[in-house]
Protein: Aldehyde reductase 2
Amino acid sequence: MSSLTTSIALGSWVLVTGASGFLASHVCLQFLKRGFKVRGTVRDPTQSSWLLEGRFKSYADIGAIELVSVPHLGADSAYDEAIKGVAAIIHTAYVTNIVPDPNDVITPMVAGIRSIMNAAIQEPSVKEVVFTSSALAASPLVGGIDNGIIGRDSWNDAVLEAAWAPPPYGMSHAMANYPASKVTAEKEVWKFVETNDLHFNVNVVSPAGLTGEPLDKKHIEGPANWVVHAYRGNKAAMDPMPASFYADVKDVALIHVAAVLDPEVKNARLQCWGHSAHWNEILSVLRKLRPQKEFVDDYPDPHHLEVSLDQTESVALLKKWSDKPDKNGWTPLEDSIFENITNPYLEG
Structure:
């Protein structure tokens, strides 16, 4: 592994919230491979026992990974016990419910930020905190709309108005609540940074669409597994989002790791959107990889999102911290799609 200087000592405990998630599970694995210990928070450890088996078993056998229950991320003092003795926190957990009432999504997300940040303030061992935000916090990522130039101060504030529109709550609220929760939660993170004299560093990592290897079957069935939607021809999921950005989950996990370990990354808002792509490009790769399978027809008038952003810092971290011999930055989209569909969990 890399011999680079790290901001926390080798062998330190790292807290990863929502550890059973697609991205979070890769974050856990990469820290373990680098010689750190991982404490993962999950709603129910019995439902996430796969994190102690398979690829993780050798680490579990030596006590390098453990799971703790945090059933309600927004509860007061939810993380007070889990945070004890950790050197770093990666807060990936989010409210997964797609429901109309913003009070059931946005409110607990913000409460979760307050809970974990207040716990970190009280724990002297904490040196680094990384929050997983979303590209949707900075941009609507809607095809055909000018998303503009994304910078440090870019915010998708329009979605807040949609989410908090007066009741009765309907589907428009449900679709707006997730991005609105990310906008509000990330702003709450930076509010903590600005209004408190913190003894730890804070960075934010903002991915767009994720592709790549699932570590558990539930990662295949998730609503945000865009490649699987295209593989199965799920037009209901595809049609509203004709174009987006996609990065390999291992790349985004590595940026989280680097945001913790790199002493030079301070107060960063790391956009790691990866490759710009539309459905026809993804379908073309799928046809190449699975020539015997029929896929949905190409979309007429394909186009990329009209958005400009600087991912230089994220790519530099990939090259600096990668253990790959080529160190070329983003994993090619075709390679990532291959890993997405070549696994024991995808059928048909």
